[in-house]
Amino acid sequence: MLSVVIATHNSERQLVPVLSALVQGVTAGILRDVTLVDHGSTDGTATIADAAGCAFLQSVSDMGMRLRQGAAQSRGSWLLFLSDRSILEEGWAREVTAFIETVERRGQAERMAGTFRLAVDGYGLGPRLGEAMAVARLALFGLPEPGQGLLIAHRNYDRLGGHPAGGRAERRFLSRIGRRRIHLLRPHVLLPATAA
Protein backbone atom coordinates (compact mmCIF):
# COMPACT_ATOMS: atom_id res chain seq x y z
CA MET A 1 0.00 0.00 0.00
CA LEU A 2 2.61 2.59 1.11
CA SER A 3 6.12 3.33 -0.13
CA VAL A 4 8.46 5.73 1.67
CA VAL A 5 10.99 7.83 -0.25
CA ILE A 6 13.85 9.58 1.55
CA ALA A 7 16.58 11.65 -0.10
CA THR A 8 19.91 11.17 1.72
CA HIS A 9 23.40 12.62 1.80
CA ASN A 10 25.78 11.63 4.59
CA SER A 11 22.70 10.79 6.66
CA GLU A 12 24.16 8.01 8.80
CA ARG A 13 23.73 9.72 12.19
CA GLN A 14 20.14 10.91 11.82
CA LEU A 15 18.79 8.02 9.72
CA VAL A 16 18.51 5.33 12.42
CA PRO A 17 15.68 7.02 14.40
CA VAL A 18 13.90 7.95 11.16
CA LEU A 19 13.88 4.33 9.99
CA SER A 20 13.08 3.01 13.48
CA ALA A 21 9.90 5.10 13.54
CA LEU A 22 8.81 3.44 10.28
CA VAL A 23 8.73 -0.01 11.90
CA GLN A 24 5.16 0.56 13.10
CA GLY A 25 4.15 0.82 9.43
CA VAL A 26 5.57 -2.67 8.88
CA THR A 27 3.80 -4.13 11.92
CA ALA A 28 0.53 -2.45 10.85
CA GLY A 29 0.90 -4.08 7.42
CA ILE A 30 0.80 -0.85 5.40
CA LEU A 31 4.48 -0.21 4.64
CA ARG A 32 5.54 -1.96 1.46
CA ASP A 33 9.03 -0.57 0.84
CA VAL A 34 11.47 2.21 1.72
CA THR A 35 13.75 3.76 -0.88
CA LEU A 36 16.74 5.91 0.01
CA VAL A 37 17.88 8.03 -2.93
CA ASP A 38 21.41 9.14 -2.18
CA HIS A 39 23.80 11.70 -3.53
CA GLY A 40 27.43 10.98 -2.84
CA SER A 41 27.38 9.83 0.77
CA THR A 42 30.82 9.02 2.15
CA ASP A 43 29.62 7.77 5.54
CA GLY A 44 27.68 4.63 6.50
CA THR A 45 24.35 5.62 4.91
CA ALA A 46 24.46 2.68 2.46
CA THR A 47 25.28 0.26 5.28
CA ILE A 48 22.30 1.45 7.32
CA ALA A 49 20.02 1.16 4.27
CA ASP A 50 21.21 -2.42 3.73
CA ALA A 51 20.78 -3.38 7.40
CA ALA A 52 17.25 -1.91 7.45
CA GLY A 53 16.20 -3.65 4.22
CA CYS A 54 15.79 -0.41 2.26
CA ALA A 55 16.40 0.01 -1.44
CA PHE A 56 19.44 2.26 -1.95
CA LEU A 57 19.83 4.24 -5.16
CA GLN A 58 22.80 6.38 -6.11
CA SER A 59 21.61 9.51 -7.85
CA VAL A 60 22.41 13.09 -8.81
CA SER A 61 22.54 16.13 -6.54
CA ASP A 62 19.27 17.63 -7.85
CA MET A 63 16.68 17.03 -5.10
CA GLY A 64 13.68 16.99 -7.44
CA MET A 65 15.24 14.41 -9.73
CA ARG A 66 16.22 12.25 -6.74
CA LEU A 67 12.69 12.29 -5.31
CA ARG A 68 11.16 11.55 -8.71
CA GLN A 69 13.61 8.66 -9.18
CA GLY A 70 12.66 7.28 -5.76
CA ALA A 71 8.97 7.48 -6.62
CA ALA A 72 9.56 5.66 -9.91
CA GLN A 73 11.33 2.86 -8.01
CA SER A 74 8.53 2.54 -5.42
CA ARG A 75 5.84 -0.12 -5.71
CA GLY A 76 3.18 1.20 -3.34
CA SER A 77 -0.06 2.80 -4.47
CA TRP A 78 0.68 5.65 -2.01
CA LEU A 79 3.93 7.54 -1.52
CA LEU A 80 5.25 9.11 1.68
CA PHE A 81 8.11 11.55 1.16
CA LEU A 82 10.18 12.23 4.29
CA SER A 83 13.42 14.06 4.91
CA ASP A 84 16.39 12.19 6.32
CA ARG A 85 15.64 13.89 9.67
CA SER A 86 11.84 13.39 9.88
CA ILE A 87 10.94 11.19 12.87
CA LEU A 88 7.27 10.17 12.85
CA GLU A 89 5.32 10.11 16.09
CA GLU A 90 3.74 6.97 17.53
CA GLY A 91 0.36 6.30 15.90
CA TRP A 92 1.27 7.60 12.46
CA ALA A 93 0.51 4.29 10.73
CA ARG A 94 -3.06 4.17 12.07
CA GLU A 95 -3.72 7.77 11.01
CA VAL A 96 -2.23 7.25 7.55
CA THR A 97 -4.34 4.12 7.05
CA ALA A 98 -7.51 6.00 8.06
CA PHE A 99 -6.69 8.91 5.73
CA ILE A 100 -6.00 6.64 2.76
CA GLU A 101 -9.16 4.59 3.31
CA THR A 102 -11.28 7.74 3.65
CA VAL A 103 -10.02 9.56 0.55
CA GLU A 104 -10.20 6.40 -1.56
CA ARG A 105 -13.75 5.66 -0.38
CA ARG A 106 -14.78 9.23 -1.28
CA GLY A 107 -13.00 9.14 -4.65
CA GLN A 108 -10.63 11.96 -3.63
CA ALA A 109 -7.28 10.17 -3.96
CA GLU A 110 -6.36 12.22 -7.03
CA ARG A 111 -7.21 15.51 -5.33
CA MET A 112 -6.05 15.20 -1.72
CA ALA A 113 -2.69 14.71 -0.03
CA GLY A 114 -1.63 14.62 3.62
CA THR A 115 1.10 16.00 5.86
CA PHE A 116 2.00 15.74 9.55
CA ARG A 117 1.97 18.35 12.29
CA LEU A 118 5.41 19.82 12.86
CA ALA A 119 7.24 19.42 16.17
CA VAL A 120 10.66 21.05 16.45
CA ASP A 121 13.14 19.31 18.73
CA GLY A 122 14.44 21.36 21.61
CA TYR A 123 13.40 23.62 24.45
CA GLY A 124 12.86 27.33 24.63
CA LEU A 125 11.42 29.97 22.38
CA GLY A 126 13.23 29.12 19.13
CA PRO A 127 11.68 25.68 18.52
CA ARG A 128 8.21 26.90 19.50
CA LEU A 129 8.51 29.82 17.04
CA GLY A 130 9.46 27.34 14.32
CA GLU A 131 6.32 25.32 15.04
CA ALA A 132 4.14 28.46 15.09
CA MET A 133 5.56 29.61 11.76
CA ALA A 134 4.78 26.21 10.21
CA VAL A 135 1.19 26.40 11.49
CA ALA A 136 0.85 29.94 10.11
CA ARG A 137 2.25 28.95 6.72
CA LEU A 138 -0.20 26.06 6.49
CA ALA A 139 -3.13 28.26 7.57
CA LEU A 140 -2.28 31.18 5.27
CA PHE A 141 -0.99 29.41 2.19
CA GLY A 142 -2.25 25.85 2.62
CA LEU A 143 1.31 24.56 2.22
CA PRO A 144 3.43 22.67 4.77
CA GLU A 145 7.18 22.87 5.24
CA PRO A 146 8.94 20.22 3.11
CA GLY A 147 10.26 18.43 6.22
CA GLN A 148 6.71 17.82 7.49
CA GLY A 149 6.34 14.92 5.08
CA LEU A 150 4.03 14.45 2.13
CA LEU A 151 1.55 11.59 1.72
CA ILE A 152 0.18 11.37 -1.82
CA ALA A 153 -1.40 8.73 -4.05
CA HIS A 154 1.13 7.44 -6.57
CA ARG A 155 -1.27 8.07 -9.45
CA ASN A 156 -1.83 11.66 -8.24
CA TYR A 157 1.93 12.18 -8.01
CA ASP A 158 2.34 10.93 -11.58
CA ARG A 159 -0.61 13.02 -12.80
CA LEU A 160 1.04 16.15 -11.38
CA GLY A 161 4.32 15.30 -13.11
CA GLY A 162 6.30 14.50 -9.97
CA HIS A 163 8.87 16.75 -8.34
CA PRO A 164 10.32 19.29 -10.77
CA ALA A 165 14.04 19.53 -11.42
CA GLY A 166 15.95 22.51 -10.10
CA GLY A 167 15.96 24.54 -6.92
CA ARG A 168 13.26 24.41 -4.25
CA ALA A 169 11.77 21.29 -5.86
CA GLU A 170 9.83 20.24 -2.76
CA ARG A 171 8.17 23.64 -2.29
CA ARG A 172 7.37 23.89 -5.99
CA PHE A 173 5.74 20.45 -5.98
CA LEU A 174 3.68 21.30 -2.89
CA SER A 175 2.40 24.36 -4.79
CA ARG A 176 1.40 22.10 -7.71
CA ILE A 177 -0.82 20.05 -5.44
CA GLY A 178 -2.82 23.17 -4.75
CA ARG A 179 -3.98 25.33 -1.91
CA ARG A 180 -6.21 23.61 0.64
CA ARG A 181 -5.68 20.15 -0.85
CA ILE A 182 -3.17 19.05 1.77
CA HIS A 183 -4.85 17.60 4.85
CA LEU A 184 -3.12 17.98 8.21
CA LEU A 185 -2.87 14.58 9.91
CA ARG A 186 -2.96 14.34 13.71
CA PRO A 187 0.47 12.78 14.43
CA HIS A 188 3.55 14.97 14.65
CA VAL A 189 6.80 14.69 12.76
CA LEU A 190 9.82 15.69 14.83
CA LEU A 191 12.53 17.71 13.11
CA PRO A 192 15.74 19.11 14.56
CA ALA A 193 15.69 22.88 15.00
CA THR A 194 18.24 23.33 12.21
CA ALA A 195 16.01 21.49 9.68
CA ALA A 196 12.69 23.20 10.53
Overview of the structural elements:
Helix 1 runs parallel beside helix 3. The chain has 196 residues and is α/β, with parallel strands linked by helices. Strand 2 (31-38), helix 3 (45-52) and strand 3 form a beta-alpha-beta unit. The protein has helices at residues 12-21, 23-27, 45-52, 63-73, 92-105, 125-141, 154-159, 169-177, and strands spanning 2-8, 31-38, 55-58, 78-82, 87-88, 113-120, 150-153, 182-191. The protein starts with a strand and ends in a 5-residue tail after the last strand.
Which structural traits does this protein have?
alpha/beta; eight-stranded mixed beta sheet; 8 strands; globular; single chain; 196 residues
Structure described in brief:
41% of the residues lie in helices and 24% in strands.
Please report the distance between the alpha carbons of the first and last residues: 28 Å
Compressed to H and E, one letter per element, the order equals: EHHEHEHEEHEHEHHE
User: Which strands sit side by side, in order, in the main sheet?
Assistant: 3-2-1-4-7-6-8-5
Number of helical stretches of at least 4 residues:
8
In this structure, how is the largest beta sheet organized?
Answer: 8 strands, mixed
